[in-house]
Design brief:
heterodimer; A: 15 helices; 68% helix; B: mainly beta; five-stranded mixed beta sheet; 4 helices; TolC family protein (chain A)
């Protein structure tokens, strides 16, 4: 407002224009600041490493870091780091967001003055008409539009954070799935080996006449089934790995070098308590902040629309010259022109209704977000806590039991109380328990990733645009 | 009771004989104090200090119940109760029995004795005792519901009758009989003849034991009482080899062994090195003209057999049930036969999954005794028992009759392993062995030639005994 007033007082037309340009320049967007803000807001997600690679030099640095990461088995955090460095989709996301922010900033600029030049010629006269016209309303509403743009830019920044949180959550979950699938594949291989050993043994037993063809066929059927299971597990592992490759945006060469750790990380010693999770204040949640900005922007825009919907005013400065051949003199005329659109047919009621409705919608959306936030958090925490308890139950109860069963069965085999086929069948069963334990651990880590996002306030429905081309515009300074 | 304690001490059984605690003295004032046995060892014979004299028996891994004389009546006190029986070193079973052990103590009386037996029930359910094979009043026969009400938990009943007929008998419950017998409730009863009996010889050593069977899962303690036939432990007096004591005798002793069968199948009992006569059954002594020499006698379910022989061959003579599975301890019945199956490659694969896996059975089951591998707790290996030349590879119903020149009369202690006189033991032949000539030909020989030849004969590879393969 102050700036506006100062500019107004200058009186001189060009000065007004210069002042306006200055103002418009200040409403431009600092994308690096925006990324910095995201790095700060979602520190746990970006590890402060979110960056848009604009130049080949930057890209090269990032590629080198990516290579270093790919040289070792990729942990969960490393996967996130790698995606931040390497994923074109994430870069696209950043660039898109930049474009969005720039578009928002554009709204706070004054339209360029229009210069009109006329040359009219009659048999006796030549008339030159020059007019420099400004949209007066543009100028009047500038502070207003500046405020709107600022909010829109802030919104875009928040949206960026949200989308990054969403992406990172997906990367984490995809990583969990890939590691778990790989782990399950190795157990499917063990089951297969057990069945294979059994089938082979049965074949040899039949060959020397110790068992019947029927018995052999039964043992072989286990083997046949295990082979199918293994094929399925192998594909599942590959599919999960490829999903990760896509999330990380790896090239074929990089994908070939991707190594995953042999197993999921162990469960944390203690789960996060509900109290710790609830500490995230509602006001700081991304979804709440975004809804609030949406509401503010709508409210601000409403005020603006109250004026713009009614009318449009254009101010023009004229300087005309007429050359009279007959009389041989030149006439000069100066003046100004104001163009006002008359609100005869459209009094802007519909537009104002629309804005009213939009503001109302934004207000309610904010309220809805506030109300849903706690509920979503409780649900996410329940999923997390249940996942933890089940995984811990598997770790502390089921797996030790299954180990004890294996050991006892080996003792029984030693005592010739059970045969080798029972021993093998049991080992298959115990492996089944291990696979269930991996599933439980996988569920926990998926819920953990989801909870981290929920604590920060990732809205449930986040559309992530991946395919948009990066904007060509340079930063507006 | 001090005097009786002294008396028990003299018999060498007071170490294990303790007065039962927990039963009020006043309540039992009229009863003989119950004597409880805490050890499963074979106790020295109980020489009669009161009543008619007789030549006592020795109960294999058991003992004889002391009595008191009360106005000419022999009074015994049996306490039916849960017991812990060591069935072999390292393997104990939670059974039901009498006076601290299963089977209960042997009751020895003399023909014509008036006997009064107090039976205290310390089981969680009612019980009764049937005096198997005795002549007695119908109301003393012990069939709960038929002859008497069952003895409720915590109550004491008294049975009283005259031991009319000399012979070998048993006692066991006849209330919830299936469960209580599966849990080990049984005992031996010997009625000695009063004076000389034309059909009952005097013997130098008189052993007795009951055949019984249990189904106790390896690693557990309590028998499965619902098992009908598929028992996994075959025992003599609830002991399994190597937990069964040897029968130690002096050279040229006349030996009597009394065997009662309370399992659910018959047992052909076989003695090495001697022939014996069956001199008695549950019906009493057999007429002399019906006796013939045997080395194996079948003891059918619910029967008694009394065998006698002159131990005139020195040595350690195996004595066992001839059903070979009955000379094994707990074993799996669905274990596939692996004889002749080549394990190359597979063993490695399996041990990847089961790290402690070792190949067994490829050359037969003797591997079992050669490998010292851990087995479930509270279990005795299926084949076990080390003799002077290695594992005896036996279990269950197996023992040894030890005949020794220098065994003192009345000495029942184990003389150790027999020392074979030079040149009296099998040895390795070190001459040349010719390849035996083998007959080849069609299945049924000339009289019944095989009509159809199988498309592919099973090829049997016999792996000749060589040096132990390095598994």
């Amino acid at each position: 407002m102050n700036l506006f007033r100062a500019a107004h007082l200058r009186g001189r037309r060009l000065a007004i224009g210069a002042g306006a340009l200055l103002l418009a320049g200040c409403a431009s967007v600092d994308f690096e600041e925006s990324v910095r803000q995201t790095n700060q807001d979602a520190a746990g997600f970006t590890q402060g490493r979110l960056a848009l690679a604009g130049t080949p030099a930057q890209r090269e640095v990032m590629a080198r870091e990516a290579d270093a990461l790919l040289a070792q088995p990729l942990g969960q955090d490393e996967a996130v780091r790698l995606a931040l460095l390497n994923s074109p989709a994430l870069q696209a996301l950043l660039a898109n967001n930049w474009s969005e922010a720039a578009t928002a900033a554009q709204g706070a600029r004054i339209a360029n003055p229009v210069f009109t030049f006329e040359r009219m010629r009659s048999p006796d006269e030549v008339e030159f008409g020059r007019m420099l016209a400004f949209g007066l309303l543009d100028l009047i509403t500038l502070p207003h539009r500046y405020g709107v743009a600022r909010r829109q830019i802030a919104q875009a920044q928040l949206r960026l954070t949200t989308e990054v949180v969403d992406q990172v959550t997906r990367i984490r979950q995809t990583w969990v799935n890939a590691v778990a699938a790989q782990q399950k594949q190795s157990y499917a291989e063990q089951v297969y080996e057990a069945a294979d050993a059994g089938a082979e043994l049965a074949q040899r037993l039949q060959a020397v006449g110790n068992i019947t063809r029927l018995q052999r066929a039964r043992h072989q059927a286990f083997y046949a089934d295990a082979a199918t299971q293994l094929a399925g597990a192998r594909h599942a592992a590959l599919a999960a790995r490829e999903a990760l490759v896509r999330q990380l945006g790896l090239t074929d060469a990089q994908a070939a070098r991707l190594q995953l750790p042999g197993q999921l990380p162990p469960l944390p010693a203690a789960p996060r308590t509900a109290g710790q999770v609830a500490q995230a204040t509602t006001e700081q949640r991304l979804d709440v902040r975004q809804a609030r900005l949406g509401f503010d922007a709508a409210a601000k825009a409403q005020g603006l629309t109250a004026v713009t919907s009614l009318t449009d005013i254009e101010l023009g400065v004229r300087r005309d010259q007429t050359f009279d051949k007959a009389e041989g003199h030149t006439e000069r005329a100066r003046g100004y022109e104001i163009e006002v659109r008359l609100p005869l047919f459209d009094w802007g009621g519909m537009q104002r209704d629309s804005m009213n409705a939009r503001t109302l919608a934004a207000a309610n959306a904010l309220e809805a977000t506030l109300r849903a936030a706690g509920s979503e958090l409780r649900e996410s925490y329940s999923a997390y806590r249940t996942g933890y308890d089940i995984a811990r139950h598997y770790r502390d109860e089921v797996l030790p039991l299954s180990k004890a069963i294996s050991e006892e069965n080996t003792l029984r085999y030693n005592g010739m109380l059970i045969g080798v086929f029972e021993l093998l069948a049991d080992s298959r069963e115990q492996i089944g328990a291990v696979v269930n334990a991996i599933n439980a651990q996988q569920q926990f880590w998926l819920a953990d990733a989801a909870l981290q996002a929920a604590v920060l306030g990732k809205p449930t429905a986040v559309a992530v645009g991946l395919a948009a081309a990066p904007g060509a515009a340079e930063a507006g300074h | 009771m001090t005097s009786r304690r002294t008396f028990l001490q003299a018999l060498g059984i007071s170490g294990g004989a303790v007065a039962a605690a927990g039963v009020g003295k006043a309540a039992l004032a009229a009863l003989p104090e119950p004597v409880i046995q805490t050890k499963p060892d074979t106790m020295a014979p109980l020489l009669p200090q009161t009543g008619r004299p007789y030549n006592p028996v020795v109960t294999l891994n058991g003992w004889t119940l002391p009595w008191r004389m009360n106005n000419g009546v022999k009074e015994f006190h049996l306490v039916a109760e849960p017991v812990v029986r060591e069935m072999a070193p390292g393997f104990t079973a939670h059974l039901w029995g009498y006076n601290g052990q299963s089977p209960g103590p042997t009751i020895e009386v003399v023909e014509g004795d008036r006997v009064r037996i107090f039976v205290t029930n310390r089981l969680p359910e009612h019980t009764s005792i049937h005096w198997h094979g005795q002549r007695l009043p119908n109301g003393m026969d012990g069939v709960a519901g038929l002859n008497q009400p069952a003895i409720p938990s915590g109550k004491t009943y008294v049975y009283e009758f005259v031991a009319r007929r000399p012979g070998t008998f048993m006692y066991h419950p006849h209330a919830d009989e299936m469960v209580q017998m599966a849990m080990g409730m049984m005992g031996f009863w010997v009625t000695h003849p009063k004076g000389r009996h034309p059909l009952i010889d005097e013997v130098d050593r008189d052993f007795c034991f009951l055949l019984n069977a249990y189904d106790i899962d390896p690693g557990s303690y309590t028998p499965k009482i619902m098992t009908m036939l598929d028992f996994n432990l075959w025992s003599w007096n609830s002991r399994i080899f190597p937990g069964i004591d040897s029968l130690n005798v002096r050279l040229n002793d006349k030996v009597r062994i009394r065997i009662g069968n309370l399992t659910m199948t018959n047992h052909p009992i076989h003695l090495h090195g001697h022939e014996f006569l069956v001199t008695g059954t549950d019906g009493g002594p057999t007429p002399k003209g019906t006796r013939w020499y045997e080395v194996t006698t079948d003891v059918a379910v619910g029967q008694m057999r009394q065998i006698e022989f002159r131990a005139d061959e020195e040595g350690d003579w195996a004595f066992h049930c001839h059903k070979s599975h009955h000379t094994m301890n707990a074993m799996g019945h669905d274990v596939p036969t692996l004889i002749g199956v080549d394990h190359r490659g597979i063993a490695k694969k399996i041990s990847k999954l089961v790290p402690d896996y070792m190949v067994m059975g490829e050359r037969g089951m003797a591997d079992m005794t050669e490998m010292d591998m851990p087995i479930p707790d509270n279990t005795v290996p299926m084949m076990t028992g080390d003799g002077p030349f290695g594992s005896v590879e036996m279990g269950g119903m197996f023992s040894v009759v030890k005949v020794r020149r220098d065994q003192k009369p009345g000495d029942y202690s184990n003389p150790g392993w027999f020392k074979h006189p030079p040149g009296t033991m099998a040895r390795e032949f070190d001459g040349a062995v010719q390849t035996p000539h083998r007959q080849s030909g069609a299945g049924g020989g000339q009289s019944m030639p095989r009509a159809r030849q199988d498309a592919s004969d099973v090829e049997v590879h016999v792996r000749k005994p060589t040096h132990k393969a390095g598994h």
